Amino acid sequence: AQKITQTQPGMFVQEKEAVTLDCTYDTSDPSYGLFWYKQPSSGEMIFLIYQGSYDQQNATEGRYSLNFQKARKSANLVISASQLGDSAMYFCAMREINTGGFKTIFGAGTRLFVKA
Amino acid sequence: GAGVSQSPSNKVTEKGKDVELRCDPISGHTALYWYRQSLGQGLEFLIYFQGNSAPDKSGLPSDRFSAERTGGSVSTLTIQRTQQEDSAVYLCASNRGDSQETQYFGPGTRLLVL
């Protein structure tokens, strides 16, 4: 069964510093996709970045990058040059492509606090 | 273009009543998803539709929960005989059905069962 684990309930980072949010996953499907979403206090879910299991390079989107270590089954999100507006909940999610259809499961989330 | 919309935005009901939550996906999106998010928690998968059919209903918590989708567009999530533990935000999302594509989320319906 697919499983997503985010072990950091809360994280603090100083403005302009980089921060890494951890995510590990478990699946037996060789074909899967990993997603990160941001949820500010307003409640909307904002897509940040995607990594496919067969992608050779780590995904990057602006200040967001995904540190994909396939053998360790980890997909950590790195936010560079943190901004006050980055304070939010962050969710890691996984979709098993061969066996899961379009079902996507989410981790419990990490709440990030950016300090001025 | 218009995003995913959900109605109502807030719903307060009494224990034992039935409620219907509506989701209007982005036009042309064939896949539609329902999630539940309890306060301070992650998203719990409920059900997804491909067109009008629901290949995976495994996340529905009990037989009090049901969902349907008509015309490959609007979906309704129905909760019968609501319980206090049903209180949560119910999120709907849609996409074109590409396995590598993100889901586009609606603003959610906040349900409070008294």
How would you describe this structure to a colleague?
Chain A has no helices and 12 strands. By secondary structure, chain A is mainly β. Chain A is globular and about 45 Å long. By secondary structure, chain B is mostly beta strands. Chain B has strands spanning 5-7, 10-13, 19-24, 31-37, 43-50, 53-56, 65-69, 75-79, 88-95, 104-105, 109-113. At the A-B interface, strand 6, strand 10 and strand 11 of A face strand 4, strand 5, strand 9 and strand 10 of B.
Oligomeric assembly: heterodimer
Order of H and E elements of chain B? EEEEEEEEEEE
- Gyration radius of chain A, in Å: 14 Å
Instruction: Determine the structural class of chain A based on helices, strands and strand pairing.
Output: mainly beta
Principal-axis shape of chain B: globular
- Tally of DSSP β-strands of chain A: 12
Our count of helices of chain B gives 0
**How many DSSP helices of chain A?**
0
Regions with little confidence, pLDDT below 50 for 5+ residues of chain A: none
Structural class of chain B: mainly beta
Query: Cα distance, first to last residue of chain A?
Result: 41 Å
What is the makeup of the main sheet of chain A? 6 strands, mixed
Shape of chain A: globular
Assign a percent range to the helix content of chain A: under 10%
What is the C-alpha radius of gyration of chain B, as a whole number of Å? 13 Å
Estimate what percentage of residues of chain B fall within beta strands: over 45%
Low-confidence parts of chain B: none
- Total strands of chain B: the figure is 11
Helix content of chain B: under 10%
